[in-house]
Specification:
The structure is a homodimer of 384-residue chains. Chain A has 384 residues and is α+β, with helices and mostly antiparallel strands. The first copy, chain A, has ten helices and 15 strands. In chain A, helix 1 packs across helix 2, helix 5 (193-206) packs across helix 6 and helix 7 packs across helix 9.
């Protein structure tokens, strides 16, 4: 599983002492080839962490040999010193592995505005390299956790004989285009960087970009896809893209399932929209409505809050043609009272809200969570 | 105080039985003239309550004789029956007062998607009319409360000899352009409808439109300004507009001070922005960041969350030129670590966050609240 499910990759995860509590905090993923193609997608936040600025440049070259990831510190808003620290991290990895620093991507997650303890991080790189293994994927996934309660991994195989695997972390500041969400995907398919990039952007647009736990866009989001070519398989684009999408969707669902303080996972289906953009805009507006998220927490099928959220968008619709279902019960018909809200059963963790805009044939699914007192406690007590 | 501070107005507030708990729920404000000029500003939510649709039309005529307001039900998303109910309410007021229904504005607040109990509301109108008094302003302000813990009134006088008074309600779904926020302002100045409209839009743009408690735009927001001319004073525009702005700012500050579950009032000052629009966009983005709102609740001067919010905007700025102060301590300088965060004292209810964009000379102030477990409890347990 994880990043070592595909052939041609080794990984490790260790405790370098970056986290004061002694938990694992440093991961290394190495592409052993023969190919070292790569693509990446990064946060659209204009305040970008040093490792994001670095890795964007690395990925532009189309080749990545290793990815080093740390939890316990985001290295964001740390000024010129922060960028020097990222550079030194890449240099140390390059030195230990015998490659160029320009092929080493760096990712960090944790508190913003605090310098990394380089006296712990740099020695940790040697220790992690010594642990590299074709079975190290789980340990790498564990080492990138921050407030995650579980580590997240996924794998898909293509019929033509290749594998796509991956790991992810992210529990808060989770609204990708965005979240302090780190993802590394690996594949042993033999694929050019340009194709990797297209497949990755197609996949993230419809998976990570459609989860929105708390509306807060991170400074550190990074999704990398590395290809080793070790399977010897050159898949058709559609087959490859579908495998990448499946792994991304699986990881995205796991991120929502472990969001900070959440007790409900909310699947928002927007149907009969005029365009896919309209569907996404409406879905995201619903996903960011704190009042609705509180209502779902209280198992209250409060469809009025859904309509008030739809009403703030510029999507094509007529207010008196809107239908809304909660867990399959059409509690709102034609913009007004529909079926009896007492029929809605909201006891289970997954809640499905369907908004029918009656304006066309496009649709989209956005995932979010409820808003809970636990989210408030976690984010008022814990600096992250 | 309240809507009867200005000469030429009577008001009343009674318990009509719309609220099941027996609290006051019906208010009437009557302009006794000699002039009956009016202007109004309404929610920009495209899903508009029936009374908003009605009152928008009434105000277009430039004359309003009476305003009837109920709490205990928003009459939003109630279909054609909801509009008939609003119409019947205006007709009953007209009948009781001996005016035309086309001069009666209607406003409602409470739960969305539930029809109003017209068997309670219509008889209540006669009862309220019987209580109309030049001292009824406080009772009217009390009758429009929903989750408000206190009623809100304000008054300002112009040196040339006129008065502007007002009342407001609103505690949740509070992000005007927007909130389930009802405001009635009255003045005894002798002013034309067109001037009232200009002064009211100027004032709301810089007051109610710049408070954002929970990012949730209501279906029912209504701000009305009625002029009786009873003072006989025809003020200069600037003097009049300043009095209207002062009353709006006072009421807006009271709304933030009583927001659902809040323990902190947060004043966000955006300075050195390239344009006022940029300053407002940045302020609103900070105001809607749930993670920052949680941090303020925990008295944690988490400036990284301020920067991550600024980074999501399209305003002009360079990330490495951003300065942020919390309660006067510049914890972020040049986009990185500034003064010691331990110096920040956040024990008091009011917290001031200053964001310096270093991009120009424009500025704006946006008000919001912290996000608390009490907000979650109130909005998961209470259908509103």
């Amino acid at each position: 599983m994880s990043v070592t499910a595909a052939k041609g990759f080794t990984a490790a995860g260790i405790a370098a002492g970056i986290k004061e509590n002694g938990n694992p905090d440093l991961a290394l993923v190495v592409n052993t080839g023969p190919r070292r193609a790569a693509a990446g997608v990064f946060t659209s936040n204009r305040v970008k962490a040093a490792p994001v600025l670095w890795s964007e440049q690395v990925v532009k070259g189309g080749e990545v040999t290793a990815v080093v990831l740390n939890s316990g510190g985001a290295n964001a808003c740390t000024g010129p010193k922060g960028f020097q620290d990222t550079h030194a991290t890449a240099e140390r990895v390059a030195e230990v592995l015998g490659h160029g620093a320009g092929e080493v991507a760096v990712a960090s997650t944790g508190l913003i505005g605090v310098p990394l303890p380089m006296d712990k991080l740099l020695p940790g790189i040697g220790a992690a390299a010594a642990e590299l293994s074709e079975h190290g994927g789980e340990k790498a996934a564990i080492a990138i956790k921050t407030t995650d309660s579980v580590h997240k991994t996924a794998v898909a195989t293509g019929p033509s004989g290749f594998t796509v695997g991956g790991m992810a972390k992210g529990a808060g500041m989770l609204a990708p285009g965005l979240a302090t969400m780190l993802v590394v995907l690996t594949t042993d398919a033999d694929v050019e960087p340009g194709t990797l990039d297209t497949a990755l952007r197609d996949a993230t647009r419809r998976t990570f970009d459609r989860i929105d736990s708390d509306g807060c866009m991170s400074t550190n989001d990074t999704v990398l896809l590395l290809a080793s070519g070790a399977s010897g398989t050159v898949p058709e684009y559609d087959e490859f893209a579908e495998a990448v999408r499946a792994v991304c969707a699986d990881l995205a669902r796991q991120l929502i399932g472990d969001a900070e303080g959440a007790s409900k996972d909310i699947r928002i289906e927007v149907v009969h929209a005029a365009t896919e953009e309209d569907a996404v805009e409406v879905g995201r507006s619903i996903a960011r409505n704190n009042l609705l998220k509180c209502a779902v927490h209280g198992e209250d099928p409060n469809w009025g809050r859904v309509l008030s959220a739809i009403g703030t968008t510029s999507a094509a619709f007529e207010p008196d043609a809107l239908d809304v279902a909660i867990n399959g019960v059409w509690v709102c018909r034609a913009g007004s009272v529909g079926e009896d809200r007492e029929l809605v059963d909201m006891r289970f963790r997954e809640v499905v809200i369907t908004a029918d805009l009656a304006a066309g044939d496009a649709s989209a699914v956005i995932w979010t969570n409820d808003l809970t007192a636990d989210y408030v406690h976690e984010n008022s007590a814990y600096s992250s």
